[in-house]
């Protein structure tokens, strides 16, 4: 992540701790408190998602953090910016959640890939699954185009998935330093530890993340291929699924493509395995598909709908996030579940 982005984010997002709204909020004016925190709500939510790997958990954590901040506002002495103090409260809230719930996973974390399609694969309900993030509006209105670009880079699927392999303190230190631009000394105060401990946590976190995150981000790839080509790829993938067109689908994929579908445990790697799965399950075994384009984790995504006889409509099935390498699809991650659709502002069903 860029140090320039960290500085820009801190400069543009920080709100002055002085002023009548702070005084009113300390006196119990909840409308004044809302005005203080509203400009920071979106970036705080993204921080909670990076920490927790779930939009639903991020919703709960942010709500809890703001309630804690509201109740503890009298203790805010203005020695740091309000933004720094709110990040302290949000980070500690997320660390409490991490301690209770542990990390979130993708199917690739659970075991080796399957060589052939597993028909009738059953969801695993006892796994805390990583979820997609609706990035529409991330950094809207207050950040430069480059800063918005880097905010999306910091919610990319590979990066958030890699964070889940870190203990909570390392996760928090890396995000606060690399993404948000706080100094090691500031982080030590925020996390109630020593600067030495923060630097040690950062060193370990960087090693693990570097092993798991591609050197080239999706934002760099998307910039290179351009919006028009990106739309062509997403539309081509969606149309091939709707038509049952195996050749059209395969033409869009890399040789080492992967396809995973949380909460299903089985996943597939390589063109042969992915093609076998695609032909036997979504292309011929599921029925009629419809789709709507969207964006998730700073990446191209598609909301897929599957025909349901009882409902007499296509019901929301998955938010599928596409990870590209060049102009081909290298990873397909289909987050199955109707509960994802409201988060993306997508309808529950299509005709």
Automatic annotation (TrEMBL):
Disordered: annotated span: 1-27
GO molecular function: DNA binding; sigma factor activity
Keywords, sorted A to Z: Sigma factor, Transcription, Transcription regulation
InterPro entries, per the entry: NTF2-like_dom_sf, RNA_pol_sigma-70-like, RNA_pol_sigma-70_dom, RNA_pol_sigma-G_actinobac, RNA_pol_sigma70_r2, RNA_pol_sigma70_r4_t2, RNA_pol_sigma_r2, RNA_pol_sigma_r3/r4-like
Start and end residues of each RNA polymerase sigma-70 region domain: 36-103
All residue ranges annotated as the SnoaL-like domain in the record: 237-332
Entries under SUPFAM superfamilies matching the protein: NTF2-like (SSF54427), Sigma2 domain of RNA polymerase sigma factors (SSF88946), Sigma3 and sigma4 domains of RNA polymerase sigma factors (SSF88659)
KW Methyltransferase (keyword) present: no
Residues in RNA polymerase sigma factor 70 region 4 type domain copies: 158-207
Protein's GO biological process: DNA-templated transcription initiation
Cited Gene3D superfamilies: 1.10.1740.10, 3.10.450.50, Winged helix-like DNA-binding domain superfamily/Winged helix DNA-binding domain
Subunit field text: Interacts transiently with the RNA polymerase catalytic core formed by RpoA, RpoB, RpoC and RpoZ (2 alpha, 1 beta, 1 beta' and 1 omega subunit) to form the RNA polymerase holoenzyme that can initiate transcription.
Family listed: Belongs to the sigma-70 factor family. ECF subfamily.
Name of the protein this chain belongs to: RNA polymerase sigma-70 factor (ECF subfamily)
Organism: Spinactinospora alkalitolerans
């Amino acid at each position: 992540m860029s140090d320039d982005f960290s500085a820009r984010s801190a400069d543009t997002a920080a709100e002055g701790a002085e002023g009548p709204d702070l005084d009113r909020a300390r006196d119990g004016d909840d409308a004044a408190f809302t005005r203080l925190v509203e400009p920071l709500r979106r970036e705080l939510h993204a921080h909670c998602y990076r920490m927790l790997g779930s939009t639903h958990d991020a919703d709960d954590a942010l709500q809890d953090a703001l309630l804690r901040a509201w109740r503890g506002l009298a203790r805010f002495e203005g020695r740091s910016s309000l933004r720094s103090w709110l990040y302290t409260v949000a980070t500690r809230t997320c660390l409490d959640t991490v301690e209770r719930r542990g990390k979130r996973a993708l199917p690739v974390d659970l075991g080796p890939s399957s060589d052939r399609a597993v028909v009738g694969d059953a969801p695993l309900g006892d796994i805390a699954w990583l979820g997609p993030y609706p990035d529409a509006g991330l950094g809207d209105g207050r950040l430069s185009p480059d800063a918005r670009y880097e905010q999306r880079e910091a919610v990319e699927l590979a990066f958030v998935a890699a964070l889940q392999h870190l203990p909570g303190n390392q996760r928090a230190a890396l995000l606060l330093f690399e993404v948000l631009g706080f100094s090691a000394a500031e982080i030590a105060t925020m996390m109630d530890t020593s600067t030495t401990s923060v630097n040690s946590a950062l060193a370990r976190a960087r090693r693990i993340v570097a092993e798991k995150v591609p050197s080239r981000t999706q934002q760099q790839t998307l910039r290179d291929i351009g919006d028009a080509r990106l739309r062509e790829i997403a539309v081509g993938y969606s149309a091939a699924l709707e038509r049952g067109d195996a050749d059209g689908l395969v033409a869009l994929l890399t040789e080492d493509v992967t396809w995973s579908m949380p909460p299903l445990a089985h996943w597939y790697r390589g063109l042969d395995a992915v093609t076998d799965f695609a032909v036997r399950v979504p292309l011929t075994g599921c029925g009629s598909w419809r789709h709507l384009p969207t964006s998730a984790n700073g990446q191209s995504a598609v909301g897929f709908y599957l025909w349901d006889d009882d409902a007499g409509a296509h019901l929301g099935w998955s938010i599928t996030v596409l990870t590209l390498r060049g102009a081909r699809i290298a990873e397909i991650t289909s987050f199955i579940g109707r509960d994802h659709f409201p988060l993306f502002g997508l309808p529950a069903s299509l005709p």
